[in-house]
Amino acid sequence: MNLAGRDLLKLSDLSPAELSALLAQAAELKRDPYRADLRGRVLGLLFQKASTRTRVSFTVAMAQCGGSTLDLVPAAMQISRGEPLSDTARVLSRYLDAIAIRTYDQRELELFAEYAEIPVINALTDQFHPCQVLADLLTIQENFGQLAGLTLAYCGDGNNVAHSLLLGCALSGIHIRVATPPGYEPDAAVVAEAQALAQGSQVLVVRDPYEAVAGAQVVYTDVWASMGQEDQAAARKAHFLPYQVNAELMKHADPEAIVLHCLPAHREEEITAEVLEGSQSRVWDQAENRLHVQKALLIQLLGAG
Ligand code: CP
Ligand code: NVA
User: Fold this and answer.
1) Residue of 218, 212, 162, 225 whose CA lies nearest to 191
2) Residue 210 belongs to what domain range?
């Protein structure tokens, strides 16, 4: 695996072998979390949207490796007064060792990466959430000892998390079935990319949540209205209610199935409290795994591995 100096803008920036090596290193770091590989290194955090897990897990990952993070609050920077992103990227590259960016449009992230001379990490855009899915894959691997050949059912909105799951599952040989209401399907270009990446595993977009979940080992959901879509929340509820992950839906999954949610969750909307807090839920392990996968990613991108 040689990821030194590279960006992670979406999961297909990694080859299947690189992804699997990264997960193996993350599992190792979970057992032995304190390493001094990143002494003196500084990761910038440029977040245009709220965050609990991503921000804190990146900060702790750097601290546990002897490095640090710098919160680049957009409102306090000259970008808020119109300084071009391309200039900001070139300047910040002269100070920082890497930068994690959470923003709206994936194209903004790509523009930043084009001008930056340091690794750029996607900390969530409207299109993708690759760091989340690295943690999801580690959680699945911990529970089943493997990835290839399993089936993951995603019920809900064809959003950033769904897009990254499509790519992550395709790269790992997991069959994926995404069930969404009409009009909320994942982007056709992302589905096509996942289908092209998949080596024999299925990539399916269906309408019926029961069809998606039938016999699946992993059942996954996310909020119905993502950050930036708050004004659509009420209208979306009616469309999405049949896609709720609840005890009835779970009866159709593999009896050993686990339930994942990237969090934050809205109980009684996309998932019932009963399922979220139930014995099949692995959401707290999943959230913890953000720390371990992102630490492995930082060590690799910064060439310290
Ligand atoms: N799952 C996730 O990315 O959480 P935050 O928005 O809290 O970072
Ligand atoms: N789809 C959600 C994920 C939050 C981690 C959002 O973008 O708000």
Assistant:
1) 162
2) 130-286
Q: Name the residue at shortest CA distance from atom 3 of ligand 1.
A: 54
State how far the Cα of 107 lies from the Cα of 125, in Å rounded to an integer: 9
Asked if the model's pLDDT at residue 254 lies above 90, the reply is: yes
CA of 200 to the centre of ligand 1 (A): 31
* Ligand 1 binding pocket includes 20 (Cβ within 6 Å): no
Give dist(CA 165, CA 133) in Å, integer: 6
Q: Is residue 278 part of a domain?
A: yes
pLDDT at 59 over 90: yes
- Cβ atoms within 10 A of the Cβ of 134, count? 26
Q: How far apart are the first and last CA of the chain?
A: 9
Q: 121 pairs with which residues across the strands?
A: 8, 100
Distance 123 CA to ligand 1 centre (A): 9
- Torsion from C-alpha of 257, 124, 41, 81, nearest 10 degrees: -160
CATH number at 171 reads: 3.40.50.1370
CA 294 to ligand 1 centroid distance, Å? 13
263 lines ligand 1 (CB under 6 A): yes
Active-site residue set: 102, 129, 132, 222, 262, 290
305 has a pLDDT exceeding 90: no
